[in-house]
Amino acid sequence: MENVYVWLGLFITFILIEIATYNLVTIWLAFSALIVSLLSIWFDNSPLQIFIFAVLVVIFLLYTRPILNKYFIKDKFHSDFKGHKVVIVDKENGTYIVKFKGSKWNAISNENFNSGDVAYIEGFEGNKILIKK
């Protein structure tokens, strides 16, 4: 019965981390811990509970995370940064290096830029920023 409190404690911890980050990182762990806490009421087998927890995390990650990322995180991220200003730092092999939010990113564009130019975010393609004048 003590395992119920351990799993509920993990559930609360994972929820608090998720609230702090909002990146759909620990929500899968939280859901799994909640389910295992309910199951631990009926059986007190720690190795089996840990195994069920691990299986549930994998299932949630494989089947639900891509769907939720597609509809929530990716769209939110893209729309939040569209139109933001970036500064061109350098150009390497047809890819621009830009400074955005305090770090350097790879960027691509059909337009030509020089170091020090200001560009604006048009969108994202994979892990590259699409920029325009």
From TrEMBL:
Transmembrane found in the keyword field: yes
Pfam families: NfeD (PF01957)
Chief location bin: membrane
InterPro entries (alphabetical): Membrane_assoc_protease, NA-bd_OB-fold, NfeD-like_C
Keywords in alphabetical order: Membrane, Transmembrane, Transmembrane helix
Transmembrane annotation, as ranges: 7-36, 48-68
Compartmental location: Membrane
Domain NfeD-like C-terminal: 83-133
SUPFAM superfamilies: NfeD domain-like
Cellular component, GO annotation: plasma membrane
Membrane topology summary: Multi-pass membrane protein
Keyword Transmembrane helix: yes
PANTHER family given in the database record: INNER MEMBRANE PROTEIN YBBJ
Protein name: NfeD family protein
Organism listed in the record: Streptobacillus felis
